[in-house]
Amino acid sequence: MKNILKAGAALMLGAATIAAPTIATAQDAVGGTNTIQDKRGYDALDEAQKAEYDAWPAEYQTAYLGWPADYQTSYWGWPADYRTAYWAWPNDYQTYYWDLEPSQQEAWWALTPEQRGKILAMTPEQQMAAWDSIKAQIAASAEPTKVMASNATVMDAPAPRAGEYPVCGGDIQDSCIQPRAAGLNRGNVPLDYWPGQPASSM
Which interval of the chain is the signal sequence (predicted)? Predict the structure, then answer.
């Protein structure tokens, strides 16, 4: 809906697109140079953020200082790899990202560059349908799978034994040792020869 309204407004104003500030479009009134007045966003940064900002090329700094405060806050909330990836995007990706709703922005990071390019190539109506599909896929993957068991039988495991195991026989059939293994002269006798063919093949 947001994109349709923007497309209609752009058409009414005779503009090709309504763009959020990007490297190509963000400039101040002085002509794109960082002045003392431009540093208002810089002063709000902590030391680590200032170090990262200072390492950027001037065009990134100019773009950043042209952003609204909520863009700047969102940007610093991203992990470092997202922040690096953002600057590698083409300008149209950057502009489109800021036009997305928060849930769409979150899903945008999960898309491949090819998928992002396909979405940008769509009409606004196709984009809305694509985002509906993406939301449905995310919702489906988030739902836990339900497994129904009919007449499940729960058996208690025998308590662990302390000390020696009793010899098997009579009522004692679990957690016990076979008589011959215990050194007694009773119980099953292991064969000391190969019986030949297995019973299944006779």
Answer: 1-26
